[in-house]
Structure formats: structure tokens, C-alpha cells
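Second opinion, please. Please look over this fold, written as C-alpha cells:

===
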Amino acid sequence: MIYPKVVIIILNWNGREDTIECLDSLKHITYPNYEILLVDNGSTDGSVECFRERHPGMEIIENEENLGFAEGNNVGIRRAMDEGTDYVLLLNNDTVVDKNFLEELVTVAESDELIGLVQPKILYYDDLSINSTGFICDIFISTKHRGRYEKDEKQYDNSIEEGFFYASGCSLLIKRNLLLELGNECFDRYLFAYYEDVDLSWIARLLNFKIVYCPTSTCYHKEGKTSGGFNPETTYWKNRNRIRIIIKNYSMRNIIWILPIVILLEFFVSIIISFHRKDIKYFYSFLKGFVWNLNNLGNTLEKRALVQSNKKVDDEYVIKYMKKQSLEIIFLINKFENFIPHSSVAVGCAVAAFDYISKIFS
């Protein structure tokens, strides 16, 4: 049997202990033809010295500074492609994997030449509840984990292609054919962190590649170890990057009505969160991200021209994997239902309004 070559890329930034545990779990995987490439994003915690001592044969790339998730992984992907790999597996350093993890992913990927991205079942490290079985995304590019916090009872194991929009960058197998189509930059380096996996999956779909969930492959994720979870900083990156990928990836017909709605959503949500948390920094995060997009509009339009000229399918094909209801509005009203009288009526009205708008324009 021929086993395609896989390069496993682990990005580390001051995460020595988590990365050690991740590397230790990879010692036990059953897949025979793989290499590990560790990319260090300018760590200052003695990570690199420790890794060299514990894994003397492992290739390590040392970036002089923190290039973020996007460009940090790009550095590793370019090296792997130069070495002729068949697949790249991106693996967060705060994960551990089952022994048959990689073998199952490759088996699925090899079953169809149009499969470009494969995500395993991602469970929480601590309680084994579901972290992600693929991510849901609405037409306004608000996202959520499919099945998050649910007990894993194999309820998503039959929907390997349907029911989600994009694959998590936490643990992601990428086929060489897709990487060749993407050229020298798998992830948009301007995104730095957050929404880079939304962008990648969106472009993969525009290139007519399939995105598949593999329930027989399992990864355990600690989540938020690097970012620190939900805070003004992560809010900034998500709001900022959401606007950029909308401009890049939607046709102009959809940009002209979706983008204004998204900006209004971000504006009002940032006010609500700032008020609820008594921290004006959430609103400042929105303003900062909006200004960044204005200042970098020229570059965004250049990227947009490249995406639009290379795409093989239209928006309608991609939108069929998206939700037409606003996940953001539903979440907010449900979250604050104790503070909003007649919240069920409000939810119904808000959802109905967005359904109506989306039907008119889509």
C-alpha cells in the first residue's frame, strides 16, 4: 500500500508545555509516512531549546517575531511544498491526537480527488464534549462551532459534507492540489489570526474543492490557550478580518447589501458587549478594525481581484452551505433574554426580517 507523504506543521508561540504534550501524542500515531515541522513564532520562553533537546531529529523553523497564525503557518507550508509533500496537516499546539488520527484523515482525503480540506472530530480536552464537527457560518459571516459543548453521541457522524461551511484551522488536512491552486500564500497573511480558516475554506469552495468532516479521526483541544479567549483583542481581530474576507470573496452583487449590514451588526454588538461588560474597549475594537479596513482597502481590493479571477463557481454555489438567518442576532437576543421583554417575539421579528432581506437579494 502506498502512503502519501504528510508534513505535520505545529505552530508554537510561548506554548512549551502544551507543545511537548502534542508532540508526545504524535509519537503513537499509526500512519507511517509523515514528518513533523515545528514553526516557532519568536517565542521567549525557552521553547526552541527545549524542543531541540527532546526531539533532536525534528525540523524547526525559527521566525524572528510573532507572524501570527496565518503567516506563521504559511512559512511552514511553503517549506513543506518545496519538499514535495502530498498533504499538509495543520495542528494546534494545544491539542493531542488519537493514534489512528492521521490514517483516517488521509483515507478520507484519498477517496475523492476534489476533496481539498478534511477536519477531524475535535473534542474538548478536559471533558470530551464536542468542540467542533465543522463550523456553521451565516451569509453575514457570523460563525459558530457545530455541536459545541454537546456530549458526543455520534449525532454528526453521518453529515461528512453537509451541515457546515468551513473546517477548523485547529486541526486541518490540506491536499497538495488545493495548495497549488492557492499559490504562494495558503492563508491571507494580513488576517494574522482569526477568520483565516473561514477565508481558506471559502476560497476552497470557490475553487470547487470539497470540505469534509471525518468523524473517525479524533483530536482533543484545550482551546484558547494562546488567545486567552473572548476579550477586546480577539474581538478586534474577528471584526476586522470579517470585513476583509467579505470584500475579498463575495461578488459585488452581494457585497453592496451584505457589507453595510455586517458593519451595522458589528457596531451595535460592540456597544451591547461594552455596556454588558462595562468595558468600552469592545467598542474601540470595532472602531479600530473599521479604520484598519479603510486604510488597507487597496490591498484588500488587490486580493479580491485575484480571488474573483480564479474562482470556478459563483456565490450561489457557496451560499448553499451557509445559513440565511443571522446567527449573531439569534445569539444576542437569547443571551440577553432576561433583559429584553418578550424576547421570543423579538427573536421571531429579527429572524423574519433577516430572512426576508436575504431572500430578496440572494
Remarks:
- The mean pLDDT is 92.
- The longest strand covers residues 210-221.
- The longest helix spans residues 252-277.
- The two ends are 47 Å apart (CA to CA).
